[in-house]
Amino acid sequence: MDSPQRSKNVFSIVPAALYRMKPFSIIGSAACVLVLFCSGCETASYAPLPEQPTATTTVRLSPGDVIKLVFPGTKELDQSQKIRADGKVSLPLVGEVAASGKTLSEFQSELAGLYKGQLRNNEVLVTLESGTATVIVSGSVSKPGKFTFDRPTTVFQAIMEAGGASEYGNIGKVHLVRTVSGEQHTQVLNLKSAMTGQTTKVNYVKDGDVVYVTQRIF
Fold it and tell me: Residues 168, 169, 171, 172: is their CA dihedral positive or negative?
């Protein structure tokens, strides 16, 4: 019961002390009090979303991906292949090989084993030339759903693919949700500038992202 009384006495001293100070000192002291008060306030901030892992040990291949194969010892075999719907590619000397679901590193190791005895240098370098991204667009959009893109696509373009924001959609508050290494991250984007032609940072969607357009509050 004593704490409230002590708190009251502390604040009652402040005005009396200020009366004895010069005007500029009063202003400075008031500013310090304001800073100390604001430092205790909780502020919300949104950090940029982390990028999806891109190392050869984490990227998993899927149908529709275009991969480039380089044979260091046999350059005439170098080629690009698109992974078919069944998840396979057809390669010289070894025939049909399943690629979908494997990381680039895993696929390289498998090819090295398949070409052992076939080529003097059985090393095969595999890189991803272009991939697909499946994204869910929901909330206040005209045609919510799941969309697959085979080209670099911005958040704004993904919303346009979903028919654009609905009548009550708030394009100034769009949630971009991304799961990275088992952790879910959310970034709030203001895409109004994209509607007015202003220069702004471009945010590209990644495979597995969720784009949610909030509803305007009237």
Answer: positive
